[in-house]
Amino acid sequence: MSAWADRGSLPNVVGRAVEHERVSELLAGAPLITLTGAAGVGKSVLARTVLDEHAARHGGTIVRVGCWDGLSADGLTAALVRAAGLDTLRRDTTQAVARPAARPGPYDTVRCEADAPTGQGGRPSAPDDTGDTAVAELAAHCVRRRATLLLDDCDPLLDTCAGLVRRLLRAEPALRIVATARRALGLAVERVVDLAPLPVTWGEGIAGPAVELLAARTGPAAPELLVAICEALEGSPLAIGLAAEQLDRMSLPQLAAQAGADGPLFWSGPAPTARHTSLHAAHAAGYALCSPVDRRVWARLSVLPGDFDPWLAGCVCASSDVPAAAVDAALERLALASVLERVREAGGPPEDSGVVLPPRYRLPRAARDFGRTRLREAGEEFSALRRFRQACAALAAEAQIAWQGTGQQLAVRLVEDEQHHLDAALTRPPQDADDALSALEIAVSLWFRWAACGFRREGRAHLDRLLLLSRDDTPLRARALWLAGWLAAQEHSLATAEALLGQAWTAAVMHADSDGLARIAHAHGVLALYRDDTPAAVACLEEAAQHTSKDPWFGPGPAHSWALLAIALAPVDADRATAAARRAWEVRYSDGDFWLYSTVLYARALTERAHGRPESALRVCRKALAAKKLIGDPLFIAGVRNILAGLQREVRDGLSAPDSDAHIRWWRRAGSDARPAPFFSRLRAGS
Prior knowledge:
8 strands, elongated, 56% helix, 6% strand, TPR-like_helical_dom_sf, P-loop_NTPase
């Protein structure tokens, strides 16, 4: 039999087969099992379901006490006594048992027996004899009746629950206790089963338990709508249940649109406990248990849309009222309280680098929405968003330096890890002119992602929008104009590229930026290559290649100009092309420049093929493709694969190279036959 306090029927448990089996196995021998997880993940439902099945199968009773709604620390033991039907204990004895010790902070570790106060000689101090007698009688009564104790929702009384559990198990080691909480009790005998949100899908096209749970509430429905809703709700059983209750006033497509829209998920509905009537209430209950520092950190983390490491959290959260040194500890406490998800533990060096990876955390959407509301109420949203964008600017600058220096794969990994944040920093509307400049700085620093890794269209969209918001004539804007023109050239928007490069040239002259003029010459060399105008391409690229760059971190630099010069010369002058390719590698900034290496190899392949050596061209072209795959760029990779196919046919069939080499270019030529003049020459001529 079960002694449930609310006597209510339990909902079906969906998607918890592994956790169900684990708890069932632990009930056979573990004295204390704690189910942990975030708010609304279904801890209490699973615990009660497993205990009901266990009691039906093996006999015995279940004694449950809920710790959250209205129960004080003084009343915990009395509630257990009443739930167990143990009426023989004297009232004064029960009160003595319930008298609590001094409570630690909400996230302090509960002291175990080894940490108990000591008397003379280092032995534990004598316990309260009256209290121990009462606890022993309660524990013995439960063992005689084969009763399993369920301490449900321990969070508000976590230290009191842990102390009582320790004393009960000391009196009767055979007693079985199950607890549910957002964090573990912290006892040595405890076995923890952590519940994660329900998976939405099991691979492509296979609905997961989150969809199954929603479908049980909605009936037959379009699978794509169910998946969209569950993905927006991140598989939270409470959120799915609350969302399903909205179907009496809206259609399923309307529910999907509302769930997927930006904004807080403050749905409400009937529930056994007040904190489960809405997502806001569920997180408000946990928020009330946090320390002031943890509350501020929680609220400020809400501006981060993706998973993050402690460095980024510190940039956003640290201020005069939250010391930087306190942020890491707050992250750990929030993770232990199931507010944050830990998506990666701190790890050793990965196989391909010597960098030790820091841990990464994630604030789920409902907790993020709640924190954002608190942040807005505190009047801190503006400053937190500004710190966020400044931190993203620093991340982009770090990635730019890594690209040209320590390693391009590290730069790519850094950008991929922080992609959610960089995208948000680029797309969120700036709050003022300085904020707009920070966003533009991010877009400019990520030039290598747009140009070298194949995200040209995305980069152009960001730059076009941010250039409209940043009208001041600054060196940063001049760089942005050049980058937008260079990307437009690579996207074959030749007229747009020429217009942007013309504006960039004017700005570079005004700021006496010789590096900028060299980059503009490089971009015009690209335009000439796309027009198949070899003389103009050679003139522009020679001028760019012979420049000595003052800023080695931004843009392609002289080495890439030499490499493109080798490509331009390959069909017409093998010796000069070979010398240019050799020079490109000699003036490189880093041995790990795979972008340059793949371009140089491509130039060598063109040279070998143009002069009747297809076997050698094939070998070199394969190396170019392998190098380029390390950093991306679908356009280059697809083009080189086409070249490989043509070379393989030539080698297999013994064919000579065709008169036209049009089919071996990785780019698509378009535009007029205009021949741009080298820009250094224009500057010297006073144009």
